[in-house]
Every structure is written in structure tokens, then in C-alpha cells.
Amino acid sequence: MAGRSRLLPCACLGLFGVLCWVWVSFASFPDDRLHLETLDAVDRGAFQPQSALSDMEFASVATYRGPGNADRRSNKELPILLWWSGGLFPHFPGDTERIDCSTSSCLVTSNRKVQLYKRTTSIIFYGTDFRAYEAPLPRLRHQTWALFHEESPMNNYFLSHGPGIRLFNYTATFSRESDYPLTLQWLPSLEYLLEPVVVPLEEKNRLRREGLAPVLYMQSHCDVPSDRDRYVQELMKYIEVDSYGKCLNNKPLPQHLEDTATATGEEPKFMNFVARYKFHLALENGLCPDYMTEKLWRPLHQGCVPVYRGSSGVADWMPNDHSVIIIDNFPSPKALADFLKHLDENDDEYSKYLEFKNHRHITNAHLLEALETREWGVNDMSKPNYLNGFECYVCDQENARLAAERAYRKAPKKNPPPEPKMASNSHVGCPLPRPGYGDVQDLPANDGWLQIWPQDYWQSLDQAEGLESLIRHNESDPSLLWKHIQNIAVSRARGKH
């Protein structure tokens, strides 16, 4: 195709060039106007039949009433957003809805029959379910890809590599750098932090004298990328830790709590039981900038002190600069244990970590602003949930893109084409897994963690590069992924990749 040959200079720039081609219908370079002028004719042939769903079906779907707008188009005139992960479709009942967002409207559907439809302008993926060998191919020139990924990298390291994340044009992730950040997804509100201490310090000290350990560990998901059990096992040599979960278990849960130990909800009896401890070991299962879960926020809510490892930027989100103990600030588990013992024996020093329970001691303006300005809510029916919020973000972005594209086509000398939009590593950014304690070169070859997570990380890079290659070659069969991975490996071995 002449259009593609005109973009070859862009392709030599690497993956950015590849995706410039993907975006050609709305993000071409200024000298690519000839291709834009002929695009309609090309599209008419490339994307027939025009609809896999009838106009009757599109006209009769229900409406998700968002904040409202001035978009008066009928359903059959609206762009379509396809949720590729149908199990995450944030509407009920049916598989197609109209959404009315801040500035525009769209149809959203989980019906994959519309994948090749010209009006399907964006495909939304759930990151945990995204697999290179199941990607919708060929990647159509008129479609963007959007990523919703709030979970741990252990579910999909594919997205932590440049060739993987740069396949997406819009993102909603735990990273503050994403287009629609979900960083505080586990923090319902400021009031959640300000809840009074559940178990007073005097009672905690009494329980300590009766034999309760100063530190709680509660994990039943062992063998995770962060290798947290290895660190806790070393820490246990220097300070007493009560471990109730399946991982490093040394104490049984009371029988009446066994059914609630792994629940994601906050069952009062269980919450009161763990609130008795002064310190909670809060170690995430994956180490990524801004990836923070209930492991961090619940101890703060209860009035316990989190001993934390996870997000490298956790201090940016804390109520003040004296409310969490960051493991990586200590040179060794022994040094951390010595510090915890010091706080355990000094009530005044320990109490400083709970001063944020008085709102006057919440001094982090960044946290306060983030909670005030986020448009989605957590257990808040007055605000949209973040799934509906993100699809509205994509809807408004797509309508703005299409409007800018029409203006450019009508008067290219007067109106610039829309700028290409692409995610970067900072939108997820989870690094190569490393041992929870010690150096990787010191681990035995048969170490279970070593045999799983570093290999998973590098294998996901192979898949990301393989999918990028499929898209670059305009392949329509995702089963060819393994062939492309093999070709890349051969080229790399020959020094050509």
C-alpha cells in the first residue's frame, strides 16, 4: 500500500513507528495528507460488512446516564467502545449500552462481533486477562487500544515491558502517571483514615505483657514475585512475629475467624482481632511504583503501624511523614527489628505514628488533593465507579480525536492532525523481581522463587516483542505468536535484534 510506504521512515524509529502506522487515520504526520484524503475509500473496502449488529439493536440499547452532555446523536451515529474482557463489562443487563459522559456519548459493548466494525473506534482490555496469543488481530488502523489494570504485576508482567505497554493508547492503572490513575483505589476516603484507634495503646501493652507478639503477619498467598516470605523469615530471627496465614504459619487462628481470614471485606470480628497488634507487616505481592493495596491502608484505618514494602513512592501518599515504617529504609532485617523493639518499649515514640488520627496532623497536601479531585468513588454511590469513569474517559477522548480528525481532513492547512497518544513504561513500571532478602546470585539453582518469577518476567518480554512483531507484519492469526518469538530469538542470537 502506498500509505504504508509513506510511513516507513516512522517505522525505523522502533515500536513508536509501528504504532504511528496503527494510528495513521488520526495521527499521521503533517506530510501524510494524501493518505488521509483517500482513507475513506480504503476503509469502505477494508471494514465491510459495516455492522455485525443491526441498526435496530444499536438504536434500542439502554443508556448509562453519566454527568450529561450536549451530544444529541442517535445511537447508530455514535462511536463504539468494545470491552474485550467481557467478564468486566460494567453494565447490567445486556451486552450493549449507551453512555452519556462529560462532553460526549458512545455505545459500549462486550459483543466481539463488532471488532471489525468501522464505528468500533476503541477496544478496552482488562490487564489481568490480556494475553498476547489472544489479542484481536489484525490491529486495525482506525482503532485505539485502552488498558484497565489495577492489579498486581504477578497477574501479567507483559505490561511491565516497553513493547507491551506501548501497544496501548489510553491507560487506567495504579500508577499516578497513567491517563486515569487508580492509585488510591483501596482508600475509600479521608474519613477512613481518621477513624479512631480500634484498640487503645494501653490495651495493646496489656496484651503484650500477656504474650502477644508486637508484630502481625497475615498472608496465605505464598511464593509471590516480591518474595516477601523470605524477608519475614529472616526478620523472625530478631523479633517475635505472630503469623496466622498459610505463609510461615506459627499460630492458629481462632476457629470462629477461619472463614474470614482471607476475605476481601472488612469483617468486624476479624478486623478487631488483628487490630490488637502494634505493627502489621504490610508487604505487597509485587513491587511497583504506586501499587498500594489494603495491606497498607487497613492498618492505618485501624490505628496500627504498617511496616511496609511495596510502592517505592509510598511516602508521597501517607497522611504525614511519620505514619508508616518503610522496610527499605533499613539496612537489614535485624536493624528493622531493633527499631521496632525500640518503639514497642517507648509509648511516646510509638504514639507519634498515630498522630494522623487527628486531622490537624494530616499534612500531606498531595494526598488531600488527590482524594478531593478524583472523580470516581470507592463504595460511594454519589460517584461513578472507576470502570464507568474510565470508559467515559475513553469515550470523550475518542470523540475529541474523531472531531479533530474531521477538522484536519476538511482543512489540513488550518487544523493540525491529532497528536499520537501512547502509554509509556511509567504507566505500570514494575521492575524485574528480586529476592525478598539477599542477592539473587546466592540463591541455589533449585530455589522455587528463582525458577518462577524472573523467568516469568523475561518470558513476558518475549511475548510482548512477539505481539509487536505480529502487529508490525499486519498478521491476523495470533497463533503465529510463537513463530514470531522464535524469529526474534534467532535474530537476537545473531546480533540483529
Descriptive notes:
This protein has helices at 2-6, 8-11, 15-22, 24-27, 33-37, 39-46, 55-60, 162-165, 190-194, 201-209, 228-235, 268-274, 294-302, 333-344, 347-351, 365-373, 386-410, 448-472, 481-493, and strands at 62-65, 80-83, 96-100, 105-109, 120-126, 144-149, 170-173, 215-217, 241-243, 279-283, 305-309, 325-326. It is α/β, with parallel strands linked by helices and 497 residues long. It has two domains: 2-184 and 382-493, no CATH class; 190-364, 3-Layer(aba) Sandwich (Rossmann fold), CATH 3.40.50. Strands 1-3-4-2-5-6-7 form a seven-stranded mixed β-sheet, with helices on one face. Helix 11 (228-235) crosses helix 14 and helix 18 packs across helix 19. It is globular.
Write the layout of secondary structure elements.
Layout: H1 2-6, H2 8-11, H3 15-22, H4 24-27, H5 33-37, H6 39-46, H7 55-60, E1 62-65, E2 80-83, E3 96-100, E4 105-109, E5 120-126, E6 144-149, H8 162-165, E7 170-173, H9 190-194, H10 201-209, E8 215-217, H11 228-235, E9 241-243, H12 268-274, E10 279-283, H13 294-302, E11 305-309, E12 325-326, H14 333-344, H15 347-351, H16 365-373, H17 386-410, H18 448-472, H19 481-493
Parallel strand pairs: 1-3, 2-4, 2-5, 5-6, 6-7, 8-9, 8-10, 10-11, 11-12
Antiparallel strand pairs: 3-4
Helix pairs in contact: 11-14, 18-19
